[in-house]
Amino acid sequence: xxxxxxxxxxxxxxxxxxxxxxxxxxxxxxxxxxxxxxxxxxxxxxxxxxxxxxxxxxxxxxxxxxxxxxxxxxxxxxxxxxxxxxxxxxxxxxxxxxxxxxxxxxxxxxxxxxxxxxxxxxxxxxxxxxxxxxxxxxxxxxxxxxxxxxxxxxxxxxxxxxxxxxxxxxxxxxxxxxxxxxxxxxxxxxxxxxx
Length: 195
Hints:
By secondary structure, this protein is α/β, with parallel strands linked by helices. It has a single domain, classed as Peptidyl-tRNA hydrolase (Rossmann fold, 3-Layer(aba) Sandwich). It has helices at residues 25-37, 75-85, 118-127, 148-152, 158-181, 183-190; strands at 5-10, 42-44, 48-54, 61-67, 92-98, 106-110, 133-138. Helix 2 (75-85) packs across helix 3 and helix 5 packs antiparallel against helix 6. 37% of the residues are buried.
């Protein structure tokens, strides 16, 4: 098996007041992964909360990181993490919310622009590269005329919360598959329409 190391960053805002927001779905996926590894998050000097481990014995090593900064300032902690662990940006997987993808859908890509996502914009600027992998967790568009900025800072609806565990599990599976089988194989699996 691959013994390489991956940095997996879940985007969100710090503090309990934001924990259930749609914007924090990246950090929810990290919690799912940490649970699978029986790993606990601890404070790190980067500044982030970090959990380390493997999902399977002999498999790739994962550094799961939740920046302590607000979403729009994610770049500083992410570039500090890359330096601390001596990793190239190609070993970075960023898990984030995506308005342009339907809720309950996970899409994967490498490179590209920020698509108006300020967390991605800051990471690209700070890392000096956009050549990292993104696990894009669909949260859908706001209903009616609701402002997008307001929508992402609201908790998931009761209907969404029923299906949220499956979405988080799918996104966690995608992270694992990218590390073990490669991005193309993971895209083939997760981009296939659901029956």
